[in-house]
C-alpha cells in the first residue's frame, strides 16, 4: 500500500467514527450503549460507528451487513464479541487469514493477514435491519475502501444485502456493469474482471448457524475458494 493510500484509510476511518448521517441509527446505537444488557452491564460500550478492521493492504475483502448491537457496537471492532465473530474468525484462522481463532475485544492482539473486514452499514441498526436510505448514506465509505485497496483479488459478501450492495458499489465505480442483477446464492462465484472475484456466503448470524442453514462445512468452502483463488 502506498503511503497516500494508508493516509486515505486513516482519514476515512476518522470520518466514519464521527458520522451522524443517519439520525435513527445514531439514536439507536447510543441508546443501546447507555442501557446495555445484563451480561455486559459492567462494560463501557463503544456506541459509535465502527470502522473496517484488518490488513491495510489486503487481497481479501469481507463485506458484512452492520455492527451487532452488543457485539461491535460494544467492542468497537467488526465481528468482535458475538457468536457471528466466533464463526468468522475461527474460519479465517483455519485458512491463515488470522493469527488466532477468537475475537473478544479490540485489544486482544488479533491480527488479520492479507484480509480486511468492512460492512455496508457502520452503525448497529434496530432489529439488524437498516433502511435503504441508511445504506445509501453509508455507501460512500465502502466506495472509498474499494477504490483505495488496490490489491483486492477476492471479495466475500456475507448475506444478500452485502452481496447486492457490493455489486451496486462495483457498478458505481465502473468496475463491472450487469444488464441483469446477479442473484444471491450461497457459494455463488462471480468473476468481476480479470483480477477480481466475488463470492457470496450466508451471513454467520445465529439465525443461520443455529438452524443449520449455514454449517461449518459450507462456510469453510467459501474461504477455501477464496484462498485457492488468491493462490
The averaged pLDDT comes out at 96
CATH architecture: 3-Layer(aba) Sandwich
**Class by SSE composition:** alpha/beta
Globally, the shape reads: globular
Strand order of the largest sheet: 1-3-2-4-6-5
What would you give as the CATH superfamily? Uracil-DNA glycosylase-like domain
**SS element count, helices:** 8
How big a fraction of the residues is strand? 5-15%
Q: How many separate domains?
A: 1
Which H/E pattern describes the elements?
Answer: HHEEHHEHEHEEHH
Q: Which spans of ≥5 residues are poorly predicted at pLDDT below 50? A: none
If you consult CATH, what is the topology? Uracil-DNA Glycosylase, subunit E
Name of the CATH class: Alpha Beta
Q: What about the largest sheet? A: 6 strands, mixed
Extended strand count: 6
> Radius of gyration over alpha carbons?
17 Å
In helices, the fraction of residues equals: 40-55%
Amino- and carboxy-terminal Cα gap: 19 Å
Notable characteristics:
231 residues; alpha/beta; Uracil-DNA Glycosylase, subunit E; six-stranded mixed beta sheet; 8 helices; 6 strands; 40% helix; 11% strand; globular
Amino acid at each position: 500500500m502506498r503511503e497516500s493510500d494508508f493516509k486515505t484509510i486513516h482519514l476515512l476511518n476518522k470520518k466514519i467514527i464521527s458520522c451522524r448521517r443517519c439520525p435513527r441509527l445514531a439514536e439507536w446505537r447510543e441508546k443501546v450503549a447507555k442501557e446495555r444488557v445484563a451480561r455486559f452491564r459492567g462494560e463501557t460500550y463503544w456506541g459509535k460507528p465502527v470502522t473496517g478492521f484488518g490488513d491495510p493492504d489486503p487481497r481479501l475483502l469481507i463485506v458484512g451487513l452492520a455492527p451487532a448491537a452488543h457485539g461491535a457496537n460494544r467492542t468497537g471492532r467488526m465481528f468482535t464479541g458475538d457468536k457471528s465473530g466466533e464463526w468468522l474468525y475461527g474460519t479465517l484462522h483455519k485458512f491463515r487469514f488470522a493469527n488466532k481463532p477468537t475475537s473478544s475485544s479490540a485489544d486482544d492482539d488479533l491480527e488479520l493477514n492479507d484480509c480486511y473486514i468492512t460492512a455496508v452499514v457502520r452503525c448497529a441498526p434496530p432489529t439488524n435491519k437498516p433502511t435503504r436510505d441508511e445504506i445509501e448514506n453509508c455507501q460512500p465509505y465502502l466506495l472509498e475502501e474499494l477504490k483505495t485497496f488496490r490489491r483486492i483479488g477476492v471479495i466475500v459478501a456475507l448475506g444478500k444485502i452485502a452481496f447486492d450492495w457490493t455489486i451496486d458499489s462495483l457498478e458505481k465505480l465502473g468496475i463491472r456493469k450487469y444488464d441483469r442483477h446477479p442473484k444471491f446464492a450461497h457459494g455463488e462465484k462471480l468473476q468481476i474482471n480479470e483480477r477480481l472475484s466475488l463470492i457470496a456466503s450466508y451471513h454467520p448470524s445465529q439465525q443461520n448457524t443455529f438452524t443449520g442453514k449455514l454449517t461449518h462445512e459450507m462456510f469453510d468452502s467459501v474461504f477455501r475458494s477464496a484462498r485457492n483463488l488468491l493462490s
